[in-house]
Every structure is written in C-alpha cells, then in structure tokens.
C-alpha cells in the first residue's frame, strides 16, 4: 500500500514538473500588454477615435497619414505638435528596445537613421522569429512609423 502511494505521489510530482516546464517554455508576448493591439481590417485605428490635430504646412498630408497609422497614445502624444524632438524619439526607441529585450534582442540605428540592426544578446531566435518580433514591437510601440518620419525629416549633418 505504501509503495502504491509513493508511486502515485511520484507521478503527481512528475506531472506538476512538466506543467511548470511547459509554462516556462512559452515565449512572452510584450505586445499583448501594449497600449493598443494592432488594428485589423475590421477595427478602426485607435488614432481614428482620438481628436486629430489640424496639421498645417507642406507636410500636412504626410502627417495626417502618419497620425492615422499610429497605435499608441505615446505615439500620438509625440506627433501631436507635428514634429518629433530627439528626446521624444529617444523615449520611443527605449520603448521599442524594452519590447525587444524580452526576446533577447537589442536594436541600434545604423547609417544615421537609414536603417537599424537588431542584435541577439541572449537566446537563439531564427531570422524569421527575429523579423516577426521586430515587426510586432515596431508596430506596437509606433517605433517603425515615428522613426521613419524622424530620420527622414532631420537636417543633414
């Protein structure tokens, strides 16, 4: 009888260990807790439900399109005045890197904003996985849209 109980206890412990191991192996999804989920064809962009500023000047059409592509309140706050300061871009970049860091990635700008490079600092993601994480983090922090505008509009040094 004692052997039977020890056997049952051993099986229960083994099952509990497997469940804990399975939970720990599930990759984290930082974009699930982002300020706004990615939009689909059936949902309005979060920007559409927020009062859009009246952009003026030669870039007003591009700024209106950029505003419509934003997913977060941070992104809208950054663009609200029609320009992006280096401090604002630093904040967006930090949010993007925080999202990437969950997966062991870190991003750095290369060629004066002409591109970026995601570096694997821990773990082992495939190129496809890195690309997916980069795209999701870029969209859900508005880094992709805002950095493209920021680096395009910076004066040449």
From TrEMBL:
Bias (Polar residues) ranges: 39-50
Record region (Disordered): 34-54
Transmembrane segments: 6-26
Keywords annotated in UniProt: Membrane, Transmembrane, Transmembrane helix
Protein name (record): Uncharacterized protein
